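Task: sequence design from structure.
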């Protein structure tokens, strides 16, 4: 088996490339040839994946976090939407949410699944904006959650504290927004704080945003937070780590195959934790679109 490993060198506290070389050696001892491609600028991995998906590899492996997987999948889809080869994921980033649904907790788990050579089909989300099409394998959000990600990016030098700053500052300016949306032909209107469209269960590492989501059920789960006070929001946030936030009266859930969202105000999107695109959006699920290494 010959694999291309696409690497975010900034992952793993800027140890991504070093970790990739070690992983390359481990796979070689198991009879797997691996070539490494490192990101040198924003969206570089996406460009490499778009070209290399057609070049005869037995698979492409993303080494990094959820953002790296996002880049690689979007590149593969742009290069060949038939996705002729499987995807491997070696978690090194800070989030690593999607791989939790593959029972991958660390690099050893990922290597074991790649060496086994077995694959399974999982769903992929497609988001159509006015100016682009974005694919996501984990989660797509807008509203408060996306505002926090954007705000945190301005405090990136503070590391993990950046998200605490983001939550605090966005809570201070918390406001709901009228949202018109449609799921599988049924129309709704709500006053919302945020919307998360989930393919897998977790986000931000261990936050269980959609406890009932399944990566291979042909559906996307929608978690919607309606108007809520600042105090109640802050009190409710820890519940996401247990998945019990769904019991709150301000939380509403849906599931479906095709949906459209049009908030009264334009909102930025965070597909798989990245910042890309704006509302209004049409979202659909591509059942079984991606084959991933999973023994």
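Answer:
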């Amino acid at each position: 088996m010959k694999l291309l490993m696409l690497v975010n060198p900034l992952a793993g506290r800027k140890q991504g490339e070093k970790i990739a070389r070690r992983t390359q050696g481990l796979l070689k001892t198991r009879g797997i040839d691996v070539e490494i491609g490192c990101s040198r600028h924003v969206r570089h991995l996406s460009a490499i994946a778009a070209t290399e998906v057609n070049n005869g590899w037995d698979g492409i492996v993303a080494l990094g976090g959820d953002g790296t997987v996002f880049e690689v999948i979007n590149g593969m889809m742009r290069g060949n939407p038939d996705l002729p080869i499987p995807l491997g994921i070696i978690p090194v980033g800070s989030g690593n949410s999607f791989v939790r649904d593959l029972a991958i907790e660390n690099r050893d788990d990922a290597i074991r699944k790649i060496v086994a050579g077995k694959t399974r089909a999982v769903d992929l989300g497609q988001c159509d904006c006015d100016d682009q099409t974005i694919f996501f394998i984990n989660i797509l959000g807008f509203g408060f959650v996306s505002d926090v990600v954007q705000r945190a990016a301005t405090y990136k030098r503070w590391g993990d504290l950046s998200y605490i700053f983001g939550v605090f500052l966005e809570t201070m300016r918390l406001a709901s927004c009228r949202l018109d949306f449609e799921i599988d032909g049924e129309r709704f209107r709500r006053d919302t704080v945020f919307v998360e469209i989930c393919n897998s269960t977790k986000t931000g590492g261990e936050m269980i945003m959609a406890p009932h989501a399944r990566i291979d059920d042909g559906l996307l789960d929608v978690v919607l937070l309606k108007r809520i006070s600042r105090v109640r929001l802050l009190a409710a946030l820890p519940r996401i780590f247990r998945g019990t936030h769904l019991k709150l009266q301000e939380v509403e859930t849906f599931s479906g195959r095709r949906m459209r969202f049009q908030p009264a105000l334009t909102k930025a999107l965070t597909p798989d934790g990245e910042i890309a695109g704006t509302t209004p959006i049409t979202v659909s699920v591509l059942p079984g679109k991606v084959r991933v290494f999973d023994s």
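DSSP finds eight helices and 14 strands in the chain.
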